[in-house]
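Let us work through a complete example step by step.
Step 1: write down the sequence.
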Amino acid sequence: MIAFGIGCFHFGLNEAPTSPLKAKKYVETLTESLGSIKSISSIKADCPETVSEEIFEVSGPIPDMGDGDGCFPYLSFFELSFEIYIPFRVQAEILERPQEQVDTTTEHFGFTLINNYDGPVVFVECIKAKREAKPSDAVIILREFLKKELKTQSTRIRIETLGPSPFHADCFLLPQQHASNELQGRSLFYCEQKHLMGYDEITFHYNARITKSEIDVKNYLFQTIAGELDLFYEIKRNKVSQMNDWEAIESQLQQLIALQRHKGCRGWVKKIIKRGHMVNELMYSLSEFNSQNLFLETILKKSYADQYNAKDIF
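Step 2: predict the structure and record it as tokens.
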């Protein structure tokens, strides 16, 4: 049995590079930063050769995925994995609960990051966990532990996360020695979802008669569902971006209303000088907001259609 949680993490940079950054150099910096954390082992970074030669530049502040921005740098089809040891005592401190109430049932975790078409997806495995484990808690634990350790080690890398991280489900991969009706005639998996108080429980059953390698099945499952998950998180990221853009528009509107409330001669002068410019800026922002949303809607419709072989998202 494999228990795992899901999230959306990206390893970004603390500071903008002073010169163009090659993808290969970013991967080296990332692996060195993770290697500085003593509890991390078995680091593997897989970057296609064509991608490793890409050059990245940024002007101004570095984008932060958690704010609805894109990932920087984003390496398409890049994969990262490692194992990490976190004692129950530390887990309890992170979760702010008594140690006996820590529900991961293990101190050993596996981390797998897959950069897909639209964005990154992370799988956090509770290694040798019990069936009653809550692997969604492991996503929280690794998120906060990595955030603190990368900062403590003064690395050039920071961790960025996009909600919901954890994804609102506890996931399990279980073998079946005798194929059930659901598995007969299917490929490899049968997915069962239980709606529970709090997070749902999603169990992926697989036919153990087809393959005996649980690791191969796990890796295949992660690759199979990563595309659907990264589309989900891309939709979430766009919503965060839209929310931030709308808050900026509301701020402009409030400034215009405040100007209109100014009284007396000085207030009248300010209205004459500033009102026209502020109205124009507000109208431009609204137009840009609408145009960008239409563009993003078109892109998401295409991504949805490609993912599900559907004609339309709505």
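Step 3: interpret the result. Helices lie at 23-35, 49-52, 88-95, 135-152, 214-260, 264-308.
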